[in-house]
Amino acid sequence: MRKQIAAANWKMNSTYQQGEKLMDEILGARIKLTPDQLTIFAVPFPYLLMGRSEVAEEKNYHVAAQNCHHKKSGAFTGEVSAEMLHSIGVAYCVVGHSERREYFGETNAQVAEKIDQCLQNFITPLFCCGEALDVREAGEQNNHVALQLRESLFHLTAEQMKGVIIAYEPIWAIGTGKTATTAQAQEMHAHLRSILSEQFGQSTADQVSILYGGSVKANNARELFGCPDVDGGLVGGASLVGAEFVQIIGALKK
Ligand code: PGA
């Protein structure tokens, strides 16, 4: 079975103390993950070491950075490189989140470079894609995500692609309380997998976890995660509420 993944995206929320308490609460629920399940906390940079020590004794629980720079190193004041993340033992990094694309002007080409930086530094990128509302209303969502994949992932080898996690996050569903229907999610995830299959072969496509993101909550996670091509979720708002996120982890396919 593909890895089933519950990924928390805290974004720019919570103080260090609140974050530590939140992790204590979630880990305190002692949800045993199967070998095919992962829980990943994408926390702000200053909390990565705290998060790492929180999950150190926990099987299949990890931390992720929410971003990294697209260059290896250099005069980029205020930025964090993939090499730096690797040097503190971070093994996952969110790349190309729609908020990075929208507010910080990240392009598909930069996202491709970030993916490379991650892979060169033994970090599994969690690559985000997804369309805005006007794109969906124009019926262009399939072409939109295809272009995102083509420009950011198609330079990889099949072997490298197996080391990438994809998150499909329709922008109209992020933080809006509006979730894609299971039919919309399944249809898009199957489309993404068919794109991967065409480029990298069916066996690679079958191994890549594709998460759904956009207003995943405790009360809709099981239904969404139940879709055959949905391998878990990337969760913003609901990941900041311990009891909610615990249920979302519990909703992963077994
Ligand atoms: P949301 O955010 O769950 O608050 O909609 C998801 C995300 O942006 O990753």
Description:
The chain has a single domain (4-250), classed as TIM Barrel (Alpha-Beta Barrel), CATH 3.20.20. The protein is built from twelve helices and eight strands. It has helices spanning 16-28, 48-55, 82-87, 98-104, 108-120, 133-137, 141-153, 158-161, 182-200, 202-207, 221-225, 242-250; strands spanning 4-9, 37-42, 61-65, 92-95, 124-129, 165-168, 210-213, 232-235. An eight-stranded parallel barrel has the order 1-2-3-4-5-6-7-8, surrounded by five helices. It is globular and about 45 Å long. The termini are close together. The structure holds 2-phosphoglycolic acid. The site of 2-phosphoglycolic acid has 13 residues, from strand 8.
List the helices and strands and how they pair.
Blueprint: E1 4-9, H1 16-28, E2 37-42, H2 48-55, E3 61-65, H3 82-87, E4 92-95, H4 98-104, H5 108-120, E5 124-129, H6 133-137, H7 141-153, H8 158-161, E6 165-168, H9 182-200, H10 202-207, E7 210-213, H11 221-225, E8 232-235, H12 242-250
Parallel strand pairs: 1-2, 1-8, 2-3, 3-4, 4-5, 5-6, 6-7, 7-8
Helix pairs in contact: 1-2, 1-12, 5-7, 7-9
Bound molecules: 2-phosphoglycolic acid.
